[in-house]
Amino acid sequence: MSVRLYALDGCPHCEAVSDALDEAGVAYETEWVDALHSDRDEVKRVSGQRGVPVLIDEERGVTMSESANIVEYVERSLA
Fewest CB within 10 A of the end CB: N or C in the chain? Predict the structure, then answer.
């Protein structure tokens, strides 16, 4: 899978990104993260920070956070 979304269950920002990916018909894998920031080592390793959502597009070499930026990227680059 070339697109991976790091998300927290119940996070409205993560849901907005997931909805955008679904609407664009993008196949992606969701990596569910722990609610505690201190336990999000994998997110920190891939993005340099512990917040979610984080989108990884391996095919294009893109790693990004901030839901509004991710939604815009999905609509412009992946739809």
Answer: N
Tens digits of residue pLDDT in 4-31: 999 999 999 999 999 999 999 999 999 9
How many structural domains does the chain have?
A: 1
Cα–Cα distance, 52 to 7 (Å, whole number):
6
Q: What is the pTM of this model?
A: 0.94
The Cβ of residue 21 has, within 10 Å, a number of other Cβ atoms equal to 21
Local structure of residue 60 (DSSP, 8 states): T
The sheet that has 54-57: what strands, in order across it?
29-32, 3-7, 54-57, 62-65
55 secondary structure, DSSP code: E
Going by C-alpha positions, the residue among 55, 52, 49 that lies closest to residue 35 is: 52
pLDDT of residue 1 exceeding 70, the answer is no
What are the structure tokens assigned to 35, written together? 């609610």
